[in-house]
TrEMBL record, chain A:
Ranges for domain Leucine-binding protein: 31-368
Organism in which the protein naturally occurs: Methylobacterium oryzihabitans
InterPro entries: BCAA_transport, Leu-bd, Peripla_BP_I
One protein family per Pfam: Peripla_BP_6
The name this protein goes by in its record: ABC transporter substrate-binding protein
Signal peptide: 1-22
Family, similarity comment: Belongs to the leucine-binding protein family.
Biological process terms in GO annotation: amino acid transport
UniProtKB keywords: Amino-acid transport, Signal, Transport
From TrEMBL, chain B:
InterPro entries named in the record: ABC_transp_permease, BCAA_transport_permease
Residues in coiled coil: none
Presence of the UniProt keyword Mitochondrion in the record: no
Entry superkingdom: Bacteria
Record CDD domains: TM_PBP1_LivH_like
The protein, known as: Branched-chain amino acid ABC transporter permease
A Pfam family the protein falls into: BPD_transp_2
Entry's Gene Ontology molecular function annotations: transmembrane transporter activity
UniProt family annotation: Belongs to the binding-protein-dependent transport system permease family. LivHM subfamily.
Automatic annotation (TrEMBL), chain C:
Native species: Methylobacterium oryzihabitans
Localization of this protein: Cell membrane
Keyword Cell membrane appears in the UniProt entry: yes
Origin: domain of life: Bacteria
Protein name stated in the entry: Branched-chain amino acid ABC transporter permease
Pfam family, one: BPD_transp_2
A GO term, aspect molecular function: branched-chain amino acid transmembrane transporter activity
UniProt topology in membrane: Multi-pass membrane protein
Amino acid sequence: MRSRVIGCALGLSLALASAASAADKVSDGVVRIGILNDLSGIYSDFTGRGSAVAAQIAIDEMGGKVLGAPVELVAADHQNKPDIAANLAREWFDQGKVDMIADFPTSSTALAVMEIAKQKNRVTMLSAGVAMAAITDKCSPLNAQWMVNTYALAAGTAKALLKAGRKSWYFVTADYTFGHSLEKDASAVVEAEGGKVLGVSRHPFPGGDFSSFMLKAQASGAQVIALANAGNDTINAVKQAAEYGIGRSDKQVIAPLLTYITDVKSLGLAKAQDMYLTEAFYWDYDDRSRAFAEKYFAKMKRMPSASQAAVYSAALNYLKAIQAAGTDEAGAVMATLRTMTIDDAVIRNGRLRADGALVHDLLLLQVKKPAESKRDWDFYDVRAVLKGDDVYPKPSDACPLNAKG
Amino acid sequence: MSDITLQAFMAQLTVGLIGGCFYAMLSMGLAIIFGLLNIINFTHGAQFMMAAFLAWIGLTQVGPWLGQPDLQVNFWLALVLAPALVAVFGMAIERTLLRRLYHLDHLYGLLLTFGVALVMEGGFRYFFGVSGQGYEPPEILQGPVDVGFMLLPKYRVFVVVASLLICFATWYLFERTKLGAYLRAGTENPRLLQAFGINVPVMITLTYGFGVALAGIAGVLAAPIMQVTPLMGGSLLNIVFAVVVIGGLGSILGAMVTGLGLGLIEGLTKVVYPEASTVVVFVIMALALLVRPAGLFGREA
Amino acid sequence: MTSTQKIFAALVLAALVVPFVPGLIYPIFVMKVMCYGLFACAFNLLLGFTGLVSFAHAAFLGTAGYVTGALMIRFGAHPLGVPAAFAAGVAAAALVGFAIGGLAIRRRGIYFAMITLALSQIVYFLAVQFRWTGGEDGLQGIPRGSLLGLDLASDTVMYYVALALFCAGFLFVERVVHSPFGQILQAVRDNEARATSLGYDAGRFQLLAFVLSAAVAGYAGALKALVFGLVSLNDVSLHTSTEVVLMTLLGGVGTLLGPLVGAALVVGLQNYLATIGDLVTVVIGLIFIVCVSFFRRGLVGEFLHWRRRRAERARPLPAREPPVVAKVA
């Protein structure tokens, strides 16, 4: 990897000698995008290699160049450790000529790198990071939360289900900040719209056996069992609920608040069928999303997850913003991004807010029954398009950037 | 608390008992291995995971690999084959690597098995990803059965019965038969046993294989309940370690009773204060150590 | 000067010039090595010189990091903020060390290790539950503050302060090892019954060593929090506890320089492996296996052993056992 980067750098300096003027506006004569995520651990299925592949598609679509300077990609595994993430980011910024870093499947790595990027005047784009802290008390002018946040996910699912008359809720929550915030945001919506929260079970992470919690949820008689957890916890909870026959009738449905298509893939439609969930992207939504997804599929032999798709969109719009701003200086690029209407294969009706939240349309999805699925990855029916303004949180006072505007 | 009916309470206890069965099987295997080899088998969780994966591979992958999509290794066959394969794999490691460390501090055995566990976990992750795979229980065990106070999946009933039988048989084998007497003598005085004409090194290898096979059986039994992932064993192992310490390292009866007991306590904690349902095991361990440093069933003072 | 001191002095001299040759080694990387080097020294103080294996050392590193970090966030601007937060972090680590050690010391050998492992899980649980630790978000943006009028926000100033603190920590460990106290610890390790019969309360000495080791681990944790401005659950995780075992083992248990070498290798490896991805766990696992099977003395240990053998061949002396952990019954 490293030698390849050096090779590229050599080639680059030769190119520069001939076209020095073109790249004047680009620092170090190159725009380098870093993908920092989990290549080997529990988040590697929905980020991992696929994120780098998605970013490369965006770079290729831009012709591999912006303002005459070449665009390059570097990727590394932060092993879900914030100090490794922080060190890589520092090194990339200080010595690696990296201008923007994207992805971050864990909140601790995202927040750590955001802090460093702010100090070094570089851009971060959280395409997998969904923590509310990133757009509230830890917000940064040089950060964009490109996919979604826990509030929008929770509110999206909650509003849609309440509208369908499902008023009583029970939460099975991972005992962690992200679980708590999913639960808190969803319950706020439930109560505001006249629903009722009948109970909560907070489980340790990772959970293992969920039958106990799911039985309690079932016994509560709630119409919705909301899972405020993620990844293997969600999978195990759904799987074990199916074992006990929970959530199989129309009287009681299961709604996982943070689910990726990779989770549904690994659960299988037989177990996951009928669940409601909110995602920022579904590959089979329309022709544009399918066109992108097929490009991705050709390289990865899998369909992109919402966060992998978001990396594509983040990289694409970042490059477009550099083009429009005429420079790759972080502040100017972010200012340009804030004026743009984001509309591409992945993100629709997007607008970047001062606090870094990218407000855009989300999709309310329901998992298909096995018989309805025509091919692999044909998993969802799109039940509704949720307008960004309806589901995103109001700008928080905790973020100083909101006060100015 | 007051809003919990007796029915719900019984249901939670039952669920706790199911968890306890896994703890019991895993901690018995650990106790057996520690008893004879003086090695803390950090690979136990990975071996548990490997068996679950082998079962899944047998059910869904072997056929396509061999170009015969209809070929399946069913659950019952996997219940025998997977633990046996894992045991063979374990014995190969014992023969080639662990054996070299017996004359050294326990630490080295522990670190070696830890390294092996990392390689196994990383390897499975590399080939099969992390989101894991689903495994269906055999048809005859699908669906629920009414046990009076709740609808219990048939498969869970099977797990309880099967694991209790296995635990009891293991205990009987080690504590009540001549073979068990040899094995226990092997821990006390291997040289004397050798003098009686028993091949102690082979006995050690087989014992390790047996302990590992117990983890393997637990793994296959767990496959239809938990998502089959490379990490499914690792998170369980910490709790099982605590179980073994509470029961007294090397005590087979202790491991079994403590495993089941802690499953029940964990089940109850999930009703009262679910946040603490994992950590409660460690708190109990700390308390147990204050009262009985040798563990509840430990032999040495 | 012993040869260890000479080599250490040479390493420090080399470290002094690092900021002047930016292309050579990345100074932040050196600071990370220093933090983990101290952490491994702390662990080695326990394992190498008392024979006790702890799987709780991350709990000390992390506790000190959280305490120092939380205090710096609140009082970092105060002129005495840095030393006070540092001291509080180390004290907190020592306290947690006393609690865990006091309980674990009731059992020996492998039991001891298992108990520390289980108790460190409680610390992890608390770190998730408490609000002031930031849960799984951890603490970010911890200010570095200033020390003796020096603004630590500059990477170069921080580098030299960290280097000074690192030297102080290392020399402290070296002093402990060579002090009468250190000699008693080794006597207890080699033959507990004999030491007891000589009137030494073995348990008390071991507990004291445990607390000292926890305090030094805390010292490393506090430094790490200050240098990198972040503390996370990873710092209190079992994973970090096993990493420090690997560092010590790889470098050489019971040697003073071994942990430093091990820390540099493991940290370097993590950085390197970050770009190859996928197989990190497998590579680390293989290193464990190779180390335990073929390299039990560690790199520094093997080197010392080789040199001693060569010296023995030159002038025959009564053989001395290499510093491998004694068998604990």
